[in-house]
Amino acid sequence: MTDPTDRPSTTDADESTSRFQAWFKARLPIFWDNGIAAAGSVIGVVTLALLGLMLLLFVANTITGRDSNPYVDLVGFLVLPAILAFAVVLLVIGNVVRRRRERTEGRSHTVLDITSGRFVRRAVTVVGICLVAFVGLGMFSFEAYHYTDSNQFCSTVCHEVMEPEATTHATSPHANVKCVECHIGPGASWFVRAKLSGLRQVYAVLTDDFHRPIPTPVLNLRPARETCEVCHWPTQFHGSHLVAHPRFAGDRENTEQTTALVVHVGGPEGAAETTESSGIHWHVDPRNEVRYRHLDRKRQEIVEVVQTTPDGEVRYQLADAPADSGEWRTMDCLDCHNRPTHIYHLPHRAMDMALSTGTLDADVPWLRKEGERVLREVTPTDDTAAAIAVRLREIYREEHPDDLAALEAAIEPTSRALADILERNVWPGMNIDWGTYESNLSHFDAVGEFGDGGCFRCHNEMLESDEGDVISQDCEACHALVAMEETDWDGIAGIDAAAFRP
Ligand code: HEC
Ligand code: HEC
Ligand code: HEC
Ligand code: HEC
Ligand code: HEC
């Protein structure tokens, strides 16, 4: 593109130069005829120059292997090409205006003489410019496409907003799965949908107009069938697996215990059409369908469940369920695995994990109990570890004065480790507290007691069929308890603890 201000005002004697100028002048109106076209030219030239700079920076970064700055990338790959496209639109409008005027002035060439040299030259120029513009824009859009698909774009550009998600993702079993592989999946239509909603989100972040915490479940998440099931085939689950959770008691010795259970993951045995499916993945056998009606956005208050199998349909309902309110949903992976990657821990479980891995020293008396207490009481600050140390000392001075010395000996690593747990799970800037994002994969509440969430949203006594049947609550249907921590289960949900203790 030519910068019109460079136009020389004098004509030289040299014949070839003047020929060039005449040629140039004749075509200049395209870029400079009126205000709109001129604005398009100026914006276009400036943007092209900046894009060139970006390209140099990109090459330099590639050669030196340095990480690029996400904000520079955002401008380079998304904003500049958009401005360039805008400049081209201005040029086109400017020239439509020019043609109109020429026509009313009677200067228009209404007859197209495709054999004239003038026409051929013009056509070649126009096609040439378009080609360069398209190839250039195409290259940038391709980079932009990859860029907006990167974890870096998803999490760093919107740093404060996505930090909890990026942190939990980075320490999950799916750390190597890109954000877009779950949130967008393959295919053009979801790509367009995601980018449109993404544009809205970038705007929301720029104007600071978004929910804290980000609401869950994510309503327009692509169906699990097209994301999770690309990697996990529902007909290939089978059998049971042994799960052992290390646990520590709240006594002075932090006595170690283990909860071990054989979880009946199940599913259709192999891919055989004839075999009965069993166990937990019965729900995702393609032959079965479970639909449910929930009253709240978070899908926790379930008032009606319809189970459809090759044997027919069974409807379970809450006796006093409000009719026709709420929303229907067909159960898929995400109704149980709603936290496959953004996994937040609860304080008691985080303590158990840290003690079992040695991040926290189980030799510090009372640490399991008081550590959990401090995690629930303190909120992250600029110096979380210091705040935790202060509170720990207070508690030990008041309640375990004899063990204060043992705490002091380990205060540095202990408060640091507790601060790490706190800062990974609690995000005051986003209003994320303990238990804000609950997991549906079990049936325990935020303090580790038998709850009515997770599986028990459906597997309970309240949802009844016309025949008076309920959805199974048999402990053994889901898992066999092999070893269990010394919790007093008696009286909780009418359980006879002795009945299933090994
Ligand atoms: C293994 C699949 C997977 C990957 C990888 C993944 N997510 Fe998610 N994400 C989910 C699921 C599932 C939900 C919860 C959906 C629901 O409850 O309906 C979710 C929820 C979210 C939410 C809403 C807040 C919340 O925690 O519920 C945000 C924001 C988010 N993800 C961002 C990201 C970002 C950023 C990345 C990459 C750093 C990422 N996700 C990677 C599956 C994934
Ligand atoms: C791009 C492939 C990919 C996608 C998409 C994907 N996963 Fe995974 N998932 C994996 C891999 C690989 C592992 C094994 C990680 C390991 O064992 O370290 C895994 C592990 C798991 C596990 C076992 C976790 C554990 O604690 O061992 C669950 C449950 C799971 N995925 C559920 C899901 C769900 C639900 C979705 C959809 C939201 C999903 N996955 C999407 C690749 C994927
Ligand atoms: C009814 C709830 C439920 C549904 C629906 C469900 N799962 Fe699971 N899934 C579980 C439970 C419970 C476990 C065992 C977890 C444990 O023991 O830690 C499990 C285990 C897994 C594992 C680990 C398997 C192994 O043998 O180690 C993967 C992977 C997985 N699920 C993926 C999926 C995918 C993909 C879908 C959707 C096609 C799905 N699940 C649907 C509840 C469910
Ligand atoms: C949306 C409702 C709903 C939720 C949530 C739910 N289930 Fe179910 N589940 C059902 C229905 C309906 C049946 C079939 C009726 C029955 O077997 O009693 C069923 C059946 C089962 C079965 C028996 C399968 C067989 O062999 O017949 C197991 C095991 C099971 N669920 C485990 C779980 C686990 C584990 C969870 C939580 C991680 C869970 N379910 C969550 C509705 C649900
Ligand atoms: C509908 C299926 C289902 C039923 C019924 C069920 N559970 Fe569970 N239970 C689960 C799932 C899923 C988990 C999580 C497994 C894991 O931690 O990997 C679990 C975990 C547990 C744990 C381990 C908790 C921990 O983290 O240490 C205990 C203990 C337990 N259940 C006890 C019971 C008892 C007792 C009953 C019977 C009154 C019962 N469950 C009924 C699905 C069920």
Keywords:
45% helix; 3-stranded antiparallel sheet; 4 domains; binds heme C; single chain; 17 helices; alpha+beta; 502 residues; 10 strands
Description of the structure:
The chain has about 500 residues and is an alpha+beta fold. The protein has 4 domains: about 140 residues, no CATH class; about 60 residues, no CATH class; about 170 residues, no CATH class; about 80 residues. About 45% of the residues lie in helices and about 10% in strands. It contains 17 helices and 10 strands. The strands form 3 sheets. A 5-stranded antiparallel beta sheet has the order 8-5-6-7-9, with no helix packed on it. The longest helix is centred in the first third of the chain and has 35 residues. The protein is extended and about 100 Å long. The N terminus is likely disordered. The protein binds heme C (HEC) (5 copies). The site of one heme C (HEC) has 21 residues, from strand 1, strand 2, helix 17 and strand 10.
